Amino acid sequence: MILYTMMPLDLVFPPEAEYEKHISMHYKGIPVEVIMDSHSSCRISRILSTNPAHFLDGNVQPGTSFSLWQENIQ
Predict the structure, then answer these.
(1) Residue 52 forms part of a structural domain
(2) Which residues contact 29 (CB under 8 A, 6 or more apart)?
(3) Which domain of life is it from (predicted)?
(4) N or C: which end of the chain has fewer CB atoms below 10 A?
(5) What are the strands, taking DSSP E only, across 1-74?
(6) Residue 6: other Cβ atoms inside 10 A
(7) Any idea what the Cα angle at residue 65 is, between residues 57 and 42, rounded to 5°?
(8) Distance CA 34, CA 16 (A)
C-alpha cells in the first residue's frame, strides 16, 4: 500500500507509547476500550460492541470516566 499524504508521519503513525494506556474490558456488560487516567480511574475511548442498543446507552459513552473499583465492571 502506498500512502500519499502531506501530513507528518508522526500524525499518520502515532507513537506506540500512546496505545500502551488503552485496555479492552467490559463495563456494565458492554465491551469497551478505555484509557487509563491513573491507577484507579479510566475513561471510555470507544465502544467495541456490535449491538446498536449499546451505543444508545447514556451511561456508557466515549469520554465517560469511572473508577476501576466500581461494582459495575465485569
Answers:
(1) yes
(2) 74
(3) Bacteria
(4) N
(5) 22-27, 30-36, 41-47, 65-67
(6) 4
(7) 120
(8) 16
Residue 40 lies in a domain: yes
Bridging pattern class, strands 41-47 and 30-36: antiparallel
pLDDT in tens, 5-49: 898 888 888 777 666 678 899 998 999 999 988 888 899 999 999
CA-wise closest residue to 30 among 45, 49, 44, 43: 49
Total domain count for the chain? Answer: 1
- Whether 10 is in a domain gets the answer no
Burial pattern 23-48, b for ≥16 Cβ within 10 A else e, equals eeeebeebbbebbeeeeeebebeebe
The count of C-alpha atoms lying within 13 angstroms of the C-alpha of 31, restricted to the half-sphere facing its C-beta, is 6
Report the C-alpha gap between 39 and 21 in whole angstroms.
Answer: 11
Instruction: Encode pLDDT of 44-71 as tens digits.
Output: 999 999 999 999 998 899 999 988 876 5
